[in-house]
């Protein structure tokens, strides 16, 4: 069974939603009051380039073909795509590709933000892992590890900004809701 088409559909919808949301927010979102400079998207692109090089240079490297794992990956990919889009939609005009505080910024704690403090990251991580499993392309596990490390760094930056902006309200939220993995008791 080949899940490449599912991958193309999920990632295509994700990219269209992100580009459409960015364009919409450019014209309709509140002005940015505070921004943290981040170079992580450049690092991510460089890392993705390395993975692509490995995949092209060594086709079949780390490949596996276990149908049950591919089915699990397909379900994870589809579910994570929906979760990511839900989280992005719930943030609405407060969303930005980098850590920012906007005019009248409010702390979003409903919907997927009741399940995890960073549901967009949770969803993207699930999408990458689901892609690796569903396609049998083991080289994508490098992408999974890279994105996980990148997002853990981003989370530290964003959470400092959220504590600075929302103070005790965010600290209370941190106590109630896990960082990335739903149901995980370790909140930090």
Topology of this structure?
Blueprint (H helix, E strand, L loop, with lengths): L3 H25 L3 E4 L4 H18 L9 H25 L8 E3 L16 H17 L4 H27 L1 H9 L12
Antiparallel strand pairs: 1-2
Helix pairs in contact: 1-3, 1-4, 2-5, 3-4, 4-5, 5-6
GO molecular function, one term: methyltransferase activity
InterPro entries: Metal_cation-efflux_comp (IPR052527), Phopholipid_MeTrfase (IPR007318)
Protein name: Isoprenylcysteine carboxylmethyltransferase family protein
* Sequence of secondary-structure elements: HEHHEHHH
Q: Work out the helix count.
A: 6
Beta-strand percent range: under 5%
Using the 3D structure, state the CATH architecture.
Up-down Bundle
Keywords: Membrane, Methyltransferase, Transferase, Transmembrane, Transmembrane helix
Pfam family, one: PEMT
Membrane topology: Multi-pass membrane protein
Transmembrane segments: 6-27, 39-56, 62-87, 124-153
Descriptive overview:
The relative contact order is 0.17. The chain has helices at residues 4-28, 40-57, 67-91, 119-135, 140-166, 168-176; strands at 32-35, 100-102. The longest helix is centred in the last third of the chain and has 27 residues, at 140-166. Strands 1-2 form a two-stranded antiparallel ribbon. With 188 residues, it is mainly alpha-helical.
């Amino acid at each position: 069974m080949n899940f490449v088409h599912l991958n193309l559909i999920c990632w295509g919808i994700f990219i269209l939603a992100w580009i459409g949301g960015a364009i919409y927010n450019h014209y309709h979102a509140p002005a940015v009051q505070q921004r943290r400079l981040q170079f992580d998207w450049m690092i991510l692109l460089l890392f993705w380039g390395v993975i692509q090089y490995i995949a092209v240079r060594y086709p079949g490297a780390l490949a596996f073909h276990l149908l049950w794992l591919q089915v699990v990956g397909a379900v994870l990919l589809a579910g994570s795509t929906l979760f990511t889009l839900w989280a992005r939609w719930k943030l609405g005009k407060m969303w930005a590709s980098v850590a920012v505080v906007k005019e009248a910024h409010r702390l979003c704690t409903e919907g997927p933000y009741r399940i995890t403090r960073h549901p967009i990251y949770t969803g993207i991580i699930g999408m990458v892992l689901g892609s690796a499993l569903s396609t049998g392309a083991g080289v994508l596990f490098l992408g999974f590890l890279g994105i996980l490390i990148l997002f853990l760094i981003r989370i530290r930056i964003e959470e400092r900004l959220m504590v600075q902006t929302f103070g005790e309200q965010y600290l209370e939220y941190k106590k109630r809701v896990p960082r990335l993995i739903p149901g995980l008791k370790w909140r930090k």
